[in-house]
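ok so for the tutorial part 2 we go from a plain amino acid sequence to predicted structure tokens. step 1 is just haveing the sequence, like this:
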Amino acid sequence: MSTIGLSDAATEAAATRRRRIVRSLWLGVAALLLLSVVESLTGITELTSSGTFGAALRLTIPIMLAGLGAIYSERAGIVNIGLEGMMIMGTWFGAWAGWAFGPWWGVVAGIVGGAIGGLIHAIGTVSFGIDHIVSGVAINLLAAGGMRFLSVVAFPPGSGGGATQSPRVDGSIGTFSLPFIAGGDLFGWQSPDLFGWLETKGWFLVSDLGAFLKGLTGNISWLTLLGLALVPLTYYVLWRTPWGLRLRSCGEAPVAAESLGVPVYRMKYYGVVISGALAGLGGAFLVLVQASIYREGQTAGRGFIGLATLIFGNWRPSGVLAGGALFGFADALRLRQGEAVHALLLFVGIGLVAFMVRAVLRRSWRTVAALGVVAAASFIWYFNTTTIPNEFISFTPHLTTLLVLSLATQRLRMPAADGMRYRKGEAT
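step 2 — the prediction. this is what the tokens look like for a chain of 428 residues:
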């Protein structure tokens, strides 16, 4: 390809990225506008309160970290069903080290614990050629049983821990609020709270935007900031460095990569171990930021939902962040009260009507019919009930994830060699 051809391709790729960013921003604005409309119609202030958005951010991070880990693994060509088990290992090691040495040591141990799980998965899939799904399921089972055994061994009687939980972790990671815009402390002086002031005014959309920004800038954990920083860092590493190009080539065409001198085995190991480390960091976040204690079953399927965000996000960091945010917001509403989840039915119904209009313009009549049925069901359920069963409330985040995945209309493209068995020397 000529230099002019390469330049044109790079320009087109940059334009595509800009269009994707603009489209994502417009979708975010439309979602906030729809939430404001639903809040005005129902009077449920929890839908757009700063507390809800702040809780959504905290609940987003573990899912997002698991999804980011999945990007490294699957871009290297290894399907990582074992993310759930690696998160479990991160929760246990994070709690143990946090209890024994302090919370920041818990962060380090959680990363190491998840990386160990990733290393086991890499040995099985890369070195021995075990089926990726079988190896991942084995990791999940090994983590669940292994952490219970370690709990019995590591937490002595009287410590507050046992077979199913750890002692309480003393201390905290620490939080901060941005001065002037979220009321943060500045050298001992309590600064004004601009976004909080906007939230209290009750202005349509403007106050909701203030609450949204207040939730994202007030009382933020340092570990939350670290997790968010990993999104642009992942993009830069994988799409802007030679190392990232080599890693992605192993997931697209490992035979061709080998012929060009790329150490395919080593790069796959790197991808899977980093994947486990990020999932372990997500597990440590659950313990050290959300609960201050390890409990059996604490991950609650977040590793699997991380895989769902990977697919929703088209194997890209920004998409993983968006998918994690959707789950986090739904989970935050679940923690509020049943009225907020009940109002979510109206939000879903109106949103589906908007998708129906889009499908009509595209003359996709089957999509119109399917969306119409679900939208009608949402409206009927909302207008004929006043509460939501507790069983449905607990399942709301998972149902939201499934609904969003089913409605995703973007063109999804997984790495070409993702999940395929690779043996060194196949290029010859």
